[in-house]
Amino acid sequence: WDAYVKEHELLQENSVLFGDVITLQERKSCLENLCDLLSQNLHQIESTVEIGERLYSSTSPECRETIR
After folding, report:
1. Single pTM value for the model
2. Of 6, 7, 51, 56, most Cβ neighbours within 10 A?
């Protein structure tokens, strides 16, 4: 949770659209890093959900949607 809060704070800090070129480039770089982190974390979440769906062979399709 703390990591999520920190990432959210970084997003807020870097979402300001004015400043000199160097500052804007630094913000852009930071936002790109945050996007990469998000992509990696989404992959982990999707993998966890898929593993959870296969946990029990008797899980019905309706329950799989509940898990998702």
Report:
1. 0.45
2. 7
